[in-house]
Amino acid sequence: MRWIRSRRRTTVQVGGQSRENGLRALRVAAAGIGTTPDESTTCAELARAVVRLAGGSAAVMHRVGRSVSGYDSITGDAGALPDARWAAAVAQDAATPAADGRAEPWTEYPAHGGARPAICLPLTSGELQYGVLVCARDGPPFTRFEVELLALLAERAASHIRQAREYDRVSSTAADLQRALLAEPGRPHPNLDVAVRYLPAGTRTLVGGDWCETVRLHFGRTLLVVGDVMGHGLEAAVDMNAYRSSLRYIASADLPPHRVLRQMDDVASGEADRRPATCLIARVDPARGQLTVASAGHLPAALITRGGRTSLLPAPVGPPLGTGFGGYESTTYRIDPDQTLVLFTDGLVEHRGEDIDSSLQRLAEIRFAVGAGVHEILETIVSRLDVKNAEDDVAVMAARPRLRHGAHIPLEGSPEMGW
Asked: 3-class SS at 30?
């Protein structure tokens, strides 16, 4: 493949426009390229800008390493574009400098057999080449001035493609790290059925600071925990992992929920860079039918009866973890084997501009099928609250005591309850 040096006389017309108007059109066209950190969108914006500026048809071929794609982001008549094999060969050879060092940064399609005038411009940023822009049209060949303008658009697009690929690389690395940090919750006791769902907000695949955890305690009890670290992204995920680690260590001492929160707050407030987090802890004791709840700035849990009705379980709300203020309290409820406890982060119910009481009321108004299992309950919640379109990440956990054969649950107020 040989780079062809254009020897045409420079004109002052660009598709019928004066040079001044052409430069003005260039500025407008360039402003519409690179509006998002997405390579495909940038290439589509480039092709549209080229057609608006010079007419005809345009397309992009992507290059990753030595691999070159077919025509993509086609704008205009695809049949007007030159043989894709020619453009692919140009893309393969674009990184090879011309022998005389004087070649222009474009290649003209050989004019034979009545072929339409066409040019191929590499999408190069620095020393890296990301593909080629191919343009073709009926009528007169592209003038040197036109090609210079299109080359500037290609250069701008290449810069944005470089940023898009770097963004994808960093995002992929962050996602891998976050998935490693977001371990599955521990296993509860066999006397508790538990289901957990985590849904990132919108179309994001990156996890943030929302998390759920279960910790097995002595005498068949299980600690259920849901938390929400301030912010999103890798930093929030790292802090989330730190909170989970401290929870597991502190919970091993079998402390009441409010004392677990107090110690977690002490640990977090001692680290200057640790982000604050809300947290709700529920200790479930199926043998006693007992549920003990403590909150660090978190929304209340919900309790669903076997008949499918929902009520909220208010608990004294202390400050978020990491503030160092302490002041947590526990409150106790009864929970039966036919009842389901639901813990969740605020993304499940909150809507921008809506009062939180109204948001919680939507959850309380949901009616569930009689005898629905924990997984079915979560599916109903996700569907009825349209969680897939939530404005924030969502972590939600459902748990139901399982009455094992031969087990005895003491009656409320009996000496066995220990209240």
From this structure: helix
